[in-house]
């Protein structure tokens, strides 16, 4: 199942991105990019969600820019306006809830990878309409979720050998969620590196961990968005 580049509009704001819709409709899921931008890998993840019965939208947070250079990706990530991004994500939440294909589903899910993982946490704290949040090894130094406002359960999936999201960082996130009495489940995959889910990067992709993580994500969304 293949989606298409399109735009969603809500709250007097139009957000470009990639939309993939199953024939039978289903709950909405927001797919948030890594620091590379809205690249084919993220579009493929949206298509996988549609195949699983979810109306998936991946917003283009860099407004058309994307890169394969780590240096350029870092610059794009750090230049991201967090306030504007929060406004975009709120519009996407409302647009997905209003989409005919999500009729009957009062909550949406959010999932993000790397930079997108941290933004998924942030979005879930800002939007009570988000009913489930998945964080794949999320990191962004300028994104500070207000966990006091979090109402969605969180699934956190991390890599043992992650030099960006270290075991100490995961422990810190766990501590913050515990302090606020939030519902979460974390798993760290042994022998894996940051971005182990990205099958377009053979130097870090870990097929077994990615397969298990995808199964965990689908079970998590089924339990919380159905």
How is this structure best summarized?
The protein has 226 residues and is an alpha/beta fold. Helices cover 37% and strands 22% of the residues.
Question: What would you note in describing this structure?
Answer:
This protein has 226 residues and is of the alpha/beta class. It has one domain (4-225): Rossmann fold (3-Layer(aba) Sandwich). The chain contains six helices and eight strands; from the N terminus they run βββαβααβαββαβα. The chain has helices at 40-51, 70-79, 82-98, 115-126, 167-179, 207-225, and strands spanning 4-10, 13-20, 28-32, 55-59, 108-113, 130-136, 154-159, 184-189. An eight-stranded mixed β-sheet has the order 1-2-4-3-5-6-7-8, with helices on both faces. Strand 5, helix 4 and strand 6 form a beta-alpha-beta unit. The two termini are 21 Å apart. The relative contact order is 0.14. The model has no long low-confidence stretch (mean pLDDT 97).
**Integer tally of domains:** 1
Show unreliable segments: none
**Helix share bin:** 25-40%
Name the CATH superfamily classification: Alpha/Beta hydrolase fold, catalytic domain
In terms of DSSP E residues, the strand content is 15-25%
* Total helical elements: 6
Report the strand count. 8
Top-tier CATH class: Alpha Beta
The CATH topology? Rossmann fold
How far apart, in Å, are the first and last alpha carbons? 21 Å
Indicate the overall shape: globular
Radius of gyration: 16 Å
Mean pLDDT: 97
What is the string of SSEs from the N terminus onward? EEEHEHHEHEEHEH
